[in-house]
Specification:
The protein has 352 residues and is mainly α. 61% of the residues lie in helices and 0% in strands. The protein is globular, with a radius of gyration of 21 Å.
Length: 352
Amino acid sequence: MKLTMASSPHNHSQKSVSKLMITVMCACIPGILTQAYFFGFGVLIQLIIAIITASLVEAAILKLRNRPILPSLSDGSAWLTAVLLAVSIPSLAPWWVIVVGIVFAIGMVKQLYGGLGFNLFNPAMGAYVLLLISFPVQMTSWMPVDHLLASPISFLDQLTIIFTQTNSTGLTLDTLRTSIDGTTMATPLDTVKTAVSQNLTVSEAMNQSQFSAYAGLGWQWVNVAYLIGGLYLLKAKVINWHIPTAFIGALALCSAIGYIADSGSQAGSLFHLLSGATMLGAFFIATDPVSACTTDKGRLIFGASIGVLVYVIRQFGGYPDAVAFAVLLLNMAVPLIDHYTQPRTYGHGASK
């Protein structure tokens, strides 16, 4: 039998990087289709723009670095970043929003640090935070555009709005938002936060027309869809259970304690788990193998810390959803967590 000597770390997976990336993108399909069902074909248009932009930016930077282009493009990492960022922005956001985000994600967060395997931060979340801070209006306008409206916005109108911010009849996106204000909102999290700041209770906030279902219009089904995709990743052993379990468990525990302490101003665990980017963050973002912890104990600490931060920022911070901020903050803590959670080397006993 031929033995191959190689330095650590040793990867025991039989799958190549490209197969892993494709598997993760396939696991996103239930969530993408659910988003398209509730928020229109704009979700798919943003995906196409993102993937094309990511391919062009990745190729251009590799060319500048005198690196081979085809191997890096074919590993699928740039496309996965594009997918994760595209599903994180409103479906009718202007085309240049996703383009700016992809340029920053690939050019600055990924390639500036040396490419795949060297980035300190999750590229999609780094770009999301940049876009949210720079373009808050465009990044917080989630509008159902399909069967949920009395006059659904057609595919052609959605395409026109994304590229010109007006529909085929000349109505601007702002006018459309105003005309369907009863179902337009940033996210359920933002609606509840705003209502509580106006001295309304959480239950009163949930009586608004946006909450035709428990976690807001369509959002609970989007999260369920990403949960299904995440469970598939666990079954396929693409990700480990530690980070998503710790993330979801910590968020559920913190929100349950908050709800018990003050149910008037704090929503319960189910609302937090099925709103915003909870399941997308738990299974597809926080589990990024490059920017997450590498030890089992470290992954538990990493995931639980993200869950706690998500709750704290949602409840007491200035932004309604906090997954991106929490992930980036914990990305900075990864070297420290890994340092103190490394398992003892075989043959070395504890110091006396």
